[in-house]
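Aim 2 progress update. The chain analyzed this quarter is reproduced below.
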Amino acid sequence: MDKAMGKADNDFDWAAMADMLELEGETHSPYVRQAFEELSHLTPRRILDIGSGPGVAACRLAGMFPQAEVTAVDGEPELLARAGERAGRLGVRLRTRVAEFPEGLAGLGTADLVWSGQVVHHVGDQQGALHRLAGLLEPGGVLAIVEGGLPARWLPRDLGFGRPGLQARLDAAMADRFDRMRAELPGTVSVVEDWPGMLRAAGLTEVRSKTFLVDHPAPLEEGPRRSVRRQLERNRKVVGELLDAEDVATLDRLLDPADPACVDERPDLFLLTAKTVHFARRPEHA
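Predicted structure tokens:
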């Protein structure tokens, strides 16, 4: 994920998750690269990355469109500081702007290309958020949002200990937690999460969706391996209470650096996931 802006989702301390977010952004960069290839024919003058987090995608946009003014927009100054540092290391031009999502978008001005990665689902009124994102577009401008895809897979079904199928039960627990998070958001509105339909309802046209693969096969390199560890640590923290004692014990073994079966050592650890990007355009003439 990039990250959700602002304070709407009280279950996330985004600044504290900065290391994990940056590592995840780097690990998931294959899908971002593929998605941006779908935009390579554009010649944008101004680009906004809404909910940029530590700026992994924003810096890639800045490198891809060096002629454009690229602005990373986020509600956490700490993450934008990271984005600025990253841009400096990579030698790309990147502006940063602190703004809450979706309330703080009004002062951003318009852009020819707006990117937003896994942000909208953290807002109570998702359709309203899409209307606000659509309002950032110049006539003919393109919006690309990342929502949906497939849950990540990291481990064999049978780990050699514990009950087989841990990953499926983690998925179910995380889905339950996500449902509770959505229900508790301020101003939450139930909506059929048909993202192409929602983009059309926001007044956009030429809507299409495409899913991109992230495939890091075993044995994992250091960066993706650390990313998997961080995700499992977060799963243990946020859904441990929803798992039975045996699954908690299995997770603890996987996360115990002293255990030879931990994720730091397992030769069978991999990372496979898919991300869906929805593209749409604002009509030239209303």
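The radius of gyration is 19 Å. The first strand starts at residue 46 and ends at 50. These observations will guide the mutagenesis experiments scheduled for the next reporting period.
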